[in-house]
Write a structure and sequence with these properties.
The protein has three domains: about 5-115, no CATH class; about 120-290, Rossmann fold, CATH 3.40.50; about 310-390, no CATH class. The relative contact order is 0.06. It is an alpha+beta fold. It is built from 13 helices and nine strands.
Length: about 400
């Protein structure tokens, strides 16, 4: 099902050509395909006549009013298909000129049936669109019906697809990997891990398709089963380190890339329930038995300059008299009159001690850094934890 009629036409053609490759006589039977355009009922009105019972049709007409924006995300109300089609047939018999209009109501019943019934197998390559790009209709609908997956349309469709599964049904899909890790998808992960079994996953990463280059689109393909399974392990194949689709395909069968018997209950032992299938039992036990950092300290994002070349120097590049050390507050930094202050921004691995190389321009409480605008006339630095900067507490870039 699609809101784009041309996409439906192309899908229908593709299915028929594949069918004809196996059966050259298939087109002689005028096969009926379950491939339809999800049509809006915005301009569809019930004709006057005793055959149509408005109370039978009104819920259906209301449900698909915004179908141009919502498409197959719509879950239609319960319907008596036979009763509705009987009404259409009766009206068409009494009004033969209504034949074209009658088909619109038959199509409405069909699209409702296809979106209400459940399936043993669902396969999907859902569309990607960040929540910030939703129109008002889609945004309101998703917030109300798919709140835990509202960050991106691919996640919304993931949730919609599993609604279409029967018990023990299988969903095969490919989408962006961000749902596996980001905090904005934590509730979605919790839901999936609690109610579904991850049968297998091919973690593809970037450049999974020759048509899509760069690092922006990072994909994962997986199969979910609609059942909650305890102590049953899935198979995970890690292909993110290979540079293009050909290498990923060649390495798919390499046993070194396979993580067997991964118990998905382990994901729930990690804060945020990230899908970290590659980590060891010892790593997981560290979360279970160890002391979380946030129980003894307050983790915060450190300073972001947005232009290190402008705002950061090595301390030996400057006069020592213009660097202030040992201050414990922003107020003291202003009173010092200095421009440069120690800055711990991290770096390569060192044992025990190091990386005290840098100073940052924080004159007048960071006026230059906090007010510098980029080429789009927006402030580039994002510093939301200023009370942790220039304090006695540890701070850094990350």
């Amino acid at each position: 099902m699609d809101i784009d009629e041309r996409a439906v036409q192309l899908a229908s053609f593709s299915v028929l050509m594949k069918a004809r490759a196996k059966n050259s006589r298939i087109l002689r039977r005028s096969p009926k395909l379950n491939i339809v355009t999800v049509r809006s009922t915005q301009n569809l009105s019930l004709p006057a006549g005793k055959e149509f019972v408005e109370s039978d049709w009104r819920p259906l007409l209301e449900a698909f009013k915004e179908a141009d924006s919502l498409g197959s995300l719509i879950t239609p109300p319960a319907l008596d298909e036979a009763k509705l089609l009987t009404q259409v047939d009766a009206f068409e018999t009494e009004n033969p000129v209504f034949k074209a209009g009658a088909q619109s109501f038959r199509d409405l019943v069909k699209q409702a049936r296809l979106l209400r019934q459940q399936y043993s197998v669902v396969v999907a390559n859902p569309p990607y669109m960040g929540g910030g790009a939703f129109n008002s209709t889609l945004k309101d609908f998703v917030s109300k019906n798919y709140n835990r997956s509202k960050s991106d349309l691919f996640a919304v469709f993931l949730e919609r697809c599993i609604e279409l599964l029967r018990v023990s049904g299988l969903l095969g899909t490919i989408n962006q990997q961000v749902w596996m890790f980001l905090s904005s998808y934590e509730r979605l992960r919790e839901y999936l891990l609690s109610h579904f079994f991850m049968v297998n996953m091919a973690h593809l990463g970037a450049r999974a398709f020759p048509e899509i280059g760069g690092e922006v689109v990072q994909s994962t393909a997986f199969v979910l089963k609609r059942e909650s399974v305890k102590k049953k392990a899935g198979l995970y194949i890690r292909l993110i380190d290979y540079k293009d689709s050909k290498q990923k395909e060649a390495e798919f069968s390499n046993l070194d890339n396979r993580y067997l018997r991964v118990d998905q209950e382990n994901f729930r032992k990690i804060p945020g329930s990230a899908i970290t299938y590659w980590i060891s039992e010892g790593f997981i036990n560290a979360f279970v038995q160890g002391t979380p950092v946030d129980s003894v300290a307050t983790p915060r994002k450190g300073m972001v300059t947005a232009d290190n070349e402008r705002f950061i120097r090595s301390w030996n590049e400057l006069f020592i008299s213009n660097i202030s050390f040992g201050l414990s507050s922003r107020k003291q930094s202003v009173e010092s009159g200095s421009r440069w202050f120690p800055y711990h921004k991290g770096g390569t691995f060192r044992n025990w001690y190091g990386h005290h190389n840098w100073v940052v321009d924080w004159e007048d409480d960071g006026f230059r850094l906090l007010n510098m605008k980029n080429e789009w006339y927006k402030v580039g630095s994002t510093n939301h934890n200023l009370d942790f900067i220039l304090s006695l507490q540890l701070y850094g870039r990350k």
